[in-house]
Amino acid sequence: MRFGVLGALEVWSADGETVAAGGPQLRALLAMLLLNVGRTVGVRRLVEGLYGPQAPSGAAHALQSQVSRLRRRLGAAGETGELLQHGPAGYRLLVDPDDVDVHRFERLAGEGRHVLAAEDHAGAARLLGEALGLWRGPALADVIDAPFAGEQAARLEELRISVLEDLVEARLARGEHRDLAAELPESVAAHPLRERLRGQLMRALYGSGRKAEALQVFEEARRTLAEELGVDPSPELGGVHVAVLRAGSSPPEAAGGGVPAQFTSFVGRDGDLERVRALLGERRLVTLTGPGGVGKTRLAIEAAGRERDEVRFVDLAPLADGAAAPQALINALGLREAGLVPALSGPLDPVERLIAGLADRRVLLVLDNCEHVAAEVAALARRLLAACRDLRILVTSRERLGITGETLHSVPPLPLDGGAPEALGHPAVRLFADRAAAVRPGFLIDDANVDAVLRLCRALDGLPLAIELAAARMRSLTLEEVEARLDDRFRLLSRGDRSAVPRHRTLRSVVGWSWDLLSRPEQALAARLTVFSGGAPLHAAARVCGPSEGEVVELLADLVDKSLVEAGGGRYRMLETVREFCAERLADDGERERLRAAHAAYFLESARAAEPHLRGPDQLEWLDRLDAERGNFHAALHWAAGADPVLGLRLLAALSWQGQLRGLPGERAAVAAGLLMTVGDEPPAGLEEEYTLCLAHAAAADNVHDRRLRDHLERLADRRLRYPFLRVLRFMVNGPCHADGEVPADPWSRAFTRLESGVKSLLAGERDTAEEAFRAALEGFRGTGDRWGVLTALEQLAGFADGPGFAALMAEAIDLAGRLGAVEDLTRLLVRNADGLADAGRLLAARAEYERAIEFARRAGTPETRAGAQRGLADVARLRGDLPAARELYDRALRGCGRASMGGALTRWRILIGLGRIAEAEQDVGQARLRYRQALAAARAYGDRPAAADSAEALAAVAAFNAAGR
């Protein structure tokens, strides 16, 4: 016999026939017993569940009557009365839990979540889908008026929605974005306050290429939450919003989590694709080799896009120096650096940052275009693979890396065996047909033209890029004209560089032929566009390349039509092979330096225009704009370091606040060091602030500049500073400083001055004055719209609050950190919030918050903040009495926390106190005294005791031990 409560109550016999369960009271009784199957339910609980707390007299006798009737019905259905047993404590229904849909549902849901956590997304989708398939309607639908039923139905509905969200998560991981984008709106409408569902709908829409609709879902959520609950979206939903805002036109999840979306279909590489996927399942380092234009990048993207693990795509083509490869990976992985000031205590090792960020993380790194930095990439890959056991790397290069464990797959040209009868099935011919039809709608290959297409593809050696370039000419030429011109061009170029490999010569011939078919204005623009790194928006292309925006618009459209330039997301970019060829033409024209100067001047102007907005209400929008031009800023800085150091100093300074908000010291350290070598030991006239900021950036990688930096900050102690980050830097290194005692004119500077004043008062022990100053700073930063300032002031004010006040301040600060994408700040705030929960005795909530912090610290690649969260988990385990687990967590945290910074000292301090508490609980007096004294010594070694409350507590504990003579 089987039973169902997930819908109207149903009973089915062994042969599947429906069994009548009786009237409302009998059905309600059976439902209560089914919800507690196998467990004894007391008489009083049954009576209250059927009749309410104010049960009428005689309710107990009525219950006995209902039980007797239920026994008879179960017996009539072929079961004996032994199914329903009576004992001193009450009644118990003896049924296999798997024969009751609600218990089967809960079992499948638990198994599905376990499998989902193990990243078996297909298995999770199957189990969770089966669980949800048991629902026939609202739970307890026909007994919902019974007193017990409302609470139980609400509990089951909550569980159902939670399982639905888990199922959606599994399906998103499997790439079912389009299906979910169609299905989820109905669920969101039914549950408008479920933020996880909203976030999943946003991800599904974005993964389907519907970014604008995804952003609209967030705005609807913000409005609904404000109207219904008076709250803002959670940090999790805010994080999805920020991720969608920052993303370009390439949906990361739709294309495998960071893999660029493609504009054309994938043709002719099915065998190679299966081979590469098989290799990725067996090997940790796979390198795709072959000549330029053979399709290595596209094959890598297609293979990576089918992976279930997290995928990160890194294009190394823009790198001029292999030493920059680690930083490129840091950027692709979204590993935020700690900021400039902590680095003053020692150099930042980007490889160690990568290792920390990839530890315990299942990631496939796709490193594209590695041939010009192969030696450095080989060394980097060796270190990462040795340190990160769940990491895999897929490389594309014209040559192998040449390290142990590397598996090679040579990507051949598209095959062209056989003659015309088989030609229609050739991948090369199908590729030409597909691309030609894109520019000439209705183009088909038939018996009349198949020979010409086959000859053309053979002349191009089956190279995909060459075939695509030839097909693009079908927009303005006939097939016969394309074939004739190509044949002439190859004869002309047949006596080229004989030392080059044949296919490289062929590719160069094809690109050269395509170049020669451009008009002179088109050639000029194509050459000038190569000054950009990572593409350019239209306005930038027009300003730098000229002659006028109108002409550039027309010429860009022509270059897009001819497949020399790709357009997407409001940007124009070139394939790297085409870019290299066109860049050579720019060098021939002698224009390179002029254009580099114009490029750098344009992006200096852009950085200066953006800088004030980074402290206002449009902060996130302008950060996204600057993020989109990261490659161009990098290129401009590198050029200026050698050619125009004054411009370089100004550009670095203009970008300094963006660097503070995004945590980018390592990315600009090398160029800062180069600028210093060019400029010398003293700043150019009028550039004292810019020079000091350059010293700060160089200090992020080389602490030899620490003394010089501190000296220059001291020189600026009495100046009203133009650059906000220089004020922050001076404040953090030299302490609060008020220039001339004047109140600053601009609102942001006034707010920051109040922040400095609050810290000064706090250090002097004037808590009331400090709190007042922090509140004024908060009000000022809110007025400007600077989320960083608001977050900083909130964090300071949280130190003056407790209970609900502390929780409210921390909730807002956590939300702001999520919106800013400041993962390290978010981790620190989560730990602090969890500490507050633990202090309030809410240990389960604290544990969940510490676990969230550990996940964010893992993403950020910050072992120090991760150690702080592990320390918190250890505290929870200790307070719950699990001393072995606490000791293991403390030991793990102790290995990960640093000694040089205040944060590391505080974490180490609290770990040692926790170990002392364990020793004390185990009555190991000597070990307890040792740990407490180590904690005090660790604090004194840093120069300050990090936490007065813990200090007093530890001192009291040591004193108590000493007083007891132990």
From TrEMBL:
One GO BP annotation of this record: phosphorelay signal transduction system
CDD domains according to UniProt: BTAD (cd15831)
Pfam families, alphabetized: AAA_22, BTAD, HTH_77, Trans_reg_C
GO MF term list: ATP hydrolysis activity; DNA binding
Entry superkingdom: Bacteria
Domain OmpR/PhoB-type residue range list: 1-95
DNA-binding region positions on the chain: 1-95
Keywords associated with the record: DNA-binding
PROSITE patterns reported in the protein's UniProt record: OMPR_PHOB
Entry annotated with the keyword DNA-binding: yes
Stored InterPro entries: AAA_22 (IPR049945), BTAD (IPR005158), HTH_77 (IPR058852), OmpR/PhoB-type_DNA-bd (IPR001867), P-loop_NTPase (IPR027417), Sig_transdc_resp-reg_C-effctor (IPR016032), TPR-like_helical_dom_sf (IPR011990), WH-like_DNA-bd_sf (IPR036388)
Annotated PANTHER family: HTH-TYPE TRANSCRIPTIONAL REGULATOR RV0890C-RELATED (PTHR47691:SF3), REGULATOR-RELATED (PTHR47691)
Family: Belongs to the AfsR/DnrI/RedD regulatory family.
Protein name: Predicted ATPase
Species this protein is from: Streptosporangium canum
Lineage of the species this protein comes from: Bacteria, Bacillati, Actinomycetota, Actinomycetes, Streptosporangiales
